[in-house]
Design a protein that fits this description.
The chain has 234 residues and is of the alpha/beta class. The protein has one domain: 3-Layer(aba) Sandwich (Rossmann fold). 41% of the residues lie in helices and 16% in strands. The protein contains seven helices and seven strands. The chain has a seven-stranded parallel β-sheet, sandwiched between helices. α1 crosses α7 and α3 runs parallel beside α5. Bound molecules: NADP nicotinamide-adenine-dinucleotide phosphate. The site of NADP nicotinamide-adenine-dinucleotide phosphate has 27 residues, from α1.
Length: 234
């Protein structure tokens, strides 16, 4: 095993907590994001920072060369833009969110699974959202997240026989910067349906991602872990 992991958006929020967990078990961690100003592991010798805008799908093969071979891929970077309504959604905004939240993760799986296949080992974790299960006022966010849940199922079938395990997490709100984009009204509504009455902490979501990417048995493959405190029991 290479013990090299790529964490997209590992500079803050949930991704940063994932980085922390991998550093604890001495992995080499490559982080791709745009803004490393507050990244606490700048000086860490096991960490490589790559500044890249993940809406640039065309540039991904070049980015992958820079990253090098990995055996673990955490497709975590993502964003939403609930200020746009379904009938007034600028074309550029739609393209950007579909690229970052769906097309890029799928491309990264396609690119990095090649090396994983050769080595007969790989772990991939995608970050979806409950938005991809029940819908979301940001229609393209919900569509992108539903897409990544489906991509997880497809790739489990395509890659499973090569020793590659791929899973997904679908969180309800987590206390990160992303919640700044949600209205106070929507946040209050959401808290009412959470039995514990609070949003999750980023380290709680990271713990699930870390398990899926490390000790999770291979029989858990193609699944989406509901990370919602029982608010969407099914
Ligand atoms: N927080 C929640 O309530 C919640 C709920 C369900 C699912 N999620 C999902 O969890 C994942 C992590 O989000 P978070 O909660 O940790 O939010 P966050 O703190 O806002 O982090 C988002 C991450 O994505 C990166 N990112 C966004 N756009 C990017 C771009 N164009 N290029 C490169 N990196 C980009 C950001 O890095 P830079 O800004 O530095 O580029 C940042 O690291 C996302 O996929 C999100 O959809 C979050």
């Amino acid at each position: 095993m290479l013990r090299r992991v790529l964490v997209t958006g590992g500079n803050k929020g949930i991704g940063l907590e994932v980085v922390k967990r991998f550093l604890e078990i001495d992995y080499e961690v490559i982080v791709v994001a745009r803004d490393f100003s507050d990244f606490p592991y700048k000086e860490n010798e096991k960490t490589t920072m790559i500044e890249y805008d993940l809406s640039d799908v065309e540039g991904l093969p070049k980015l992958a060369e820079q990253v090098g071979e990995i055996d673990t891929l955490i497709n975590n970077a993502g964003f939403m833009q609930p200020k746009y309504t379904y009938d007034n959604y600028p074309k550029e905004a739609k393209e950007k969110i579909m690229n970052v939240d769906l097309h890029t993760p799928v491309e990264l799986i396609t690119i990095f699974s090649e090396g994983m296949k050769k080595r007969g080992y790989g772990k991939i974790v995608n970050t979806a959202s409950i938005a991809g299960q029940i819908g979301h006022p940001d229609i393209w966010y919900g569509i992108a997240k539903a897409g990544i849940i489906n991509a997880t199922k497809i790739f489990a079938k395509l890659l499973g026989s090569h020793g590659i395990i791929i899973n997904c997490i679908a969180p309800t709100p987590v206390e990160t910067n992303m919640q700044k984009d949600n209205s106070e009204e929507r946040k209050a509504e959401f808290k009412k349906i959470l039995p514990c009455g609070r949003f999750a902490e980023p380290e709680e979501a990271a713990e699930v991602i870390f398990w899926l990417a490390t000790t999770c048995p291979e029989y858990v493959n193609g699944t989406t872990i509901d990370f919602n405190n029982g608010s969407y029991a099914r």
